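Worked example

This section walks through a single chain of length 207. The input is the sequence exactly as stored; nothing has been trimmed or padded.
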Amino acid sequence: MGKKEVPSLVKDEKLIQRRREEMVKAAVSLFKKNGFHRTTTREIAKASGFSIGTLYEYIRSKEDILYLVCDSIYDGVKLRLQQDINAEDSGVKGVERAITAYFKVMDDMQDEVLVMYQEAKSLSDEALPYVLKKELEMTAIFEKLLAQSVLQGELDLSEKEIQAAAHNILIIGQMWTFRRWALQKMYTIEEYTQLQLQQLLYGIRGA
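Given that input, the structure is written out below as tokens.
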């Protein structure tokens, strides 16, 4: 399933990108405060710094803005992760580096991630499958790194165990955002990362 096209009356691609980035930033703040359904397009336009008429030159509906928010967040997380993963790091060291980078991105973008998961249910039947596909692409990054560690003999995991571990990594990183009301009173992001690395890669050992 391909990327959903959001029509624009404006033809200047650079201007479209800039205006939509402004909308996304404003929408994240408003959706976090009021929720998607209680936020109006007029409020988004005002927070973006332009009129409601100008806003509708770049999108058709409020749902288009939610789609752009989700798409932008996934692209941002994936880009940051790819930039922070060192191709020279392989095996378990590479997995640790990738998890550390991912958790750091979750910390830096926690408001955006929280809004995305709270409001993604409001996406259209056309847009939701594409957004879910982006989630699986994120998971695949960790599946690949774990599989490389298995091939190098540093981890002993079946294919299904690799898949489960990759999903666990994604969810545990997101948990820093979802349960920040509790976790961030107990740990710094560095402490949380080290604790989760130990449990993810070496398991929970009893006495």
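What to look for: The radius of gyration is 19 Å.
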